Write a sequence for this structure.
């Protein structure tokens, strides 16, 4: 029998969690869905969704299972990650219900079309991000602003909180680009972190 799973991203506000539970429970009754199994996730929404409980749930879900969340912001904090999650659910035939916005991806032809559109939207979003980054760097360079970090060891790098996760990937000899994708960062961000924190594991520059 298909499972109904309610995903709650837990914050420090206990009332917020209670509101998520109440809203999802009422929604399932109104939609004649089975009583949901509530799964709480305490990991920050800044962590890539693949590394959170949400990623595990979607990976383990089977066709026909239902995933219910209170609102889009509970899935992720970036448009690109939300699009990736939706596309993944459509691809696995996992029905996704977002209570607050009324979005339902339920395996219908409409959902299949939407899944294709979501994939296209994700590609467009990536292109926009890349274009905005390049334009911003060009403006800074034209203004004479030094690009990159100043010489010396940075006190804090973006990937520092993921050090143990990266070490685990390294121990498994995972390709660097695959690691970057799982971490939700550009390959160059990972390479820079490795050069600063794990120089022995950093990619060697190509000789030319």
């Amino acid at each position: 029998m298909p499972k109904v799973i309610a995903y709650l991203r837990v914050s420090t506000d206990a009332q917020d969690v209670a509101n998520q539970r109440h809203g999802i429970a009422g929604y399932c009754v109104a939609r004649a869905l089975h009583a949901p199994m509530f799964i709480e996730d305490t990991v920050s929404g800044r962590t890539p969704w693949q590394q959170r409980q949400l990623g595990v749930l979607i990976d383990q879900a089977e066709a026909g299972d239902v995933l219910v969340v209170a609102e889009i912001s509970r899935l992720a904090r970036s448009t690109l990650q939300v699009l990736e999650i939706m596309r993944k659910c459509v691809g696995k035939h996992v029905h996704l219900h977002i209570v607050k916005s009324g979005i339902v991806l339920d395996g219908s032809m409409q959902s299949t079309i939407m899944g294709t559109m979501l994939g296209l939207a994700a590609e467009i979003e990536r292109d926009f991000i890349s274009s905005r980054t390049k334009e911003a760097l060009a403006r800074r360079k034209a203004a004479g602003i030094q690009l990159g970090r100043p010489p010396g060891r940075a006190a804090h790098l973006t990937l520092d909180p993921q050090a143990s996760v990266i070490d685990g990937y390294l121990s498994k000899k995972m390709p660097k680009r695959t690691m970057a994708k799982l971490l939700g960062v550009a390959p160059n961000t990972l390479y820079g972190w490795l050069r600063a924190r794990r120089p022995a594991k950093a990619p060697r520059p190509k000789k030319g």
